Amino acid sequence: MKKTIITVVGKDTVGIIAKVCTYLAENDINILDISQTIVQGYFNMMMIVDTNNTPKSFGDMADELAAIGQQIGVVIKCQKEEIFDSMHRI
Amino acid sequence: MINQYEVIETNEMIERENLDVRTITLGISLLDCIDSNLESLNEKIYTKIYEAAKDLVKTGEEISREFGIPIVNKRISVTPIALIGGAACRTVEDFASIAKTLDRVAHEVGVNFIGGYSALVSKGMTPADELLIRSIPLALSTTERVCSSVNLGSTRTGINMDAVKLMGEMILQTAEYTKEEDSLGCAKLVVFCNAPDDNPFMAGAFHGVTEADKIINVGVSGPGVVKTALEKVRGENFEVLCETIKKTAFKVTRVGQLVAQEASKMLNVPFGIVDLSLAPTPAIGDSVADILCEIGLEYAGAPGTTAALALLNDQVKKGGVMASSYVGGLSGAFIPVSEDQGMIDAVTAGALTLEKLEAMTCVCSVGLDMIAIPGDTKATTISGIIADEMAIGMVNQKTTAVRIIPVIGKGVGENVEFGGLLGHAPIMPVNPFSCDAFVNRGGRIPAPIHSFKN
Q1: Minimum Cα–Cα distance from A48: chain B residue
Q2: CATH of B219-444, one of 3.30.70.100, 3.20.70.20, 2.60.40.420, 3.40.50.150
Q3: Contact partners, residue B138, CB within 8 Å, separation at least 6
Q4: Does the distance separating the beta carbons of A58 and B10 come in below 8 Å?
Q5: How far is Cα B439 from Cα B183, in angstroms, rounded to an integer?
Q6: Residue B254 to residue A87, Cβ atoms within 8 A
Q7: What is the per-residue DSSP string for B234-289?
Q8: What CA–CA distance (Å, rounded) separates B13 from A46?
Q9: CATH architecture of B22-193
Q10: SS3 letters across B70-84
Q11: For the segment B389-442, what is each residue's pLDDT rounded down to a tens digit?
Q12: Residue B414 carries which DSSP code?
């Protein structure tokens, strides 16, 4: 399974999760895990998503999510899971 | 499954602590380009490099985007040109024409440096080797992205003192030829003892003759990450200190390993090695000297510096070795002056001298690196400095190097600005006493004995 980690960092505001989830649903991206916390006063959300079925390329998905982030004043980043796996798992 | 704190830790390293992959270097063998006709040699070299590297930059950017990790440099290393051009080149201009070809193809494929304008003369020089060495000033002053290196000695062969003498002269001449740009040519020229065949870092990268036709080598970095990790264990004992460095080096190296594997897959080129190096940049927070200060020194250069650097270097290797299947290149902490704000501050404060830097090179990778000295330094003095550094490498069975910049028209106390990753540096004083008679003896220093070690 191809997994991508989506992180959202910024000032908390109404509808962040709704906006991101709407985009994911429209593009056949399944959410496997979702968690959020406040780090140093900033809203921090992480999603692990399954990108097997989406017709979008990784680059398009990353760009479009980043654009949604800009609209609502947060930073949205997509990274393939492997970077975290290789750093934190032996 | 990965948890949020792990994700946050990784992204903090990238965003705040300057974690990056310093370079993906594509090594390309040019042995099959050898031709006795200079024109067709140049053409073959251009075609081979272009075909091999045309997707390198694009691939690097794609990987960078997918993992969200900056890959700062995409570079190329080639077989030492003295071997490739020997059959075709009769004059220094002939050799310099190859440098221009390398420069042209580097621009075309978009890499910022191409290394391998090199000669390996640790025991003796062929006429082609000597001609290439004599062409270095011309080559570096008429190209922008070409890097040159010369291996002058090794533990097995001793030190070629004729070549050491010649390189002193060539470094000075390169400085003279590029004096309009603060002698920038010398920043792209390095001499080695025990040069590795698979080093991905410039200016010393070349594709050794023992290597495959093409290979991907990756250099990781992350002094800022190590420093931040150490901030959390202030006042703890050496055991805790070493464990922290080791764990951090492991994480940093795993990123390099991942990037190397991806690049290898995407370019369909075998993965060579990951070079486990702490390579600083002039950016604030990306400094090896700052790690030494965090370990407990007021400035790099204070008493205790050599010991601190020795433990840092060793722990980086211990942590990194398990993180990667193949480790090579220089692997260790780099201590360039102009590329490290903490080192620059230490020199400006009077804490760090050339002699202390020399001592530090006994325990870390590379050597006297990016050090600006007065432009009126004699060629024999430069050769003397090189000989000292080569001796350290030869006796200690390690790689040592000298990348020193005599800045024409400037003296001690003045500053020199190279720009970009090469940074800026205060000009450091050099011991004024002569070594003319020593350097002028000629011949070579025999290899050291390999038993009776104590």
Answers
A1: B2
A2: 3.20.70.20
A3: B92, B93, B96, B177
A4: no
A5: 24
A6: yes
A7: TT--HHHHHHHHHHHHHHHHHHHHHHHHHHHHHHT--EEEEEEEE---SSTT--HH
A8: 17
A9: Alpha-Beta Barrel (3.20)
A10: CEEEEEEEECCHHHH
A11: 999 999 999 999 999 999 999 999 899 998 888 889 999 999 999 999 999 999
A12: -
Would an 8 Å CB–CB cutoff place B251 in contact with chain A? Answer: yes
Say yes or no for a CB contact (<8 Å) between A44 and B2: no
Which chain A residue shows the shortest CA-CA distance from B252?
Answer: A87
Model ipTM value: 0.89
Contact A86 B257 (CB under 8 A): yes
Classify B54 as helix, strand or coil.
Answer: coil
Q: Per residue in B277-300, pLDDT tens?
A: 898 988 888 899 999 999 999 999
CB atoms within 10 A of CB A70: 11
Cβ within 8 Å, pair B2-A86: no
Of B68, B254, B255, the CB nearest to A77: B68
CA distance B290 to B224: 8
Cβ distance of B6 and A5 shorter than 8 Å: no
What are the sequence ranges of the domains in chain A? 3-88
Query: Across the interface, do B258 and A86 touch by the CB < 8 Å criterion?
Result: yes
Residues of A in contact with B253 (CB under 8 A): none
pTM: 0.93
**Cα separations in angstroms, B230 against A89, B44, B77, B297, B342:** 21, 50, 35, 13, 16
B378 contacts chain A (CB < 8 A): no
Q: Inform me whether the pLDDT recorded for B454 exceeds 80.
A: no
Residues of A in contact with B62 (CB under 8 A): 59
Interface size A-B, in CB pairs within 8 Å, comes to 60
Task: For residue B234, give every residue at least 6 positions away whose Cβ sits within 8 Å of its Cβ, in sequence order, or none.
Answer: B294
Mutate to test the interface with A, among B8, B11, B257 (most CBs of A within 10 A): B11
Residue B275 and residue B332: Cα distance in Å, rounded? 8
β-strands B400-407, B368-374: how paired?
parallel
Q: Hey, are the CB atoms on B11 and A80 less than 8 Å from each other? A: no
Class of domain A3-88: alpha beta
Secondary structure of chain B: what % helix, strand, coil (to 5)?
A: 45, 20, 35
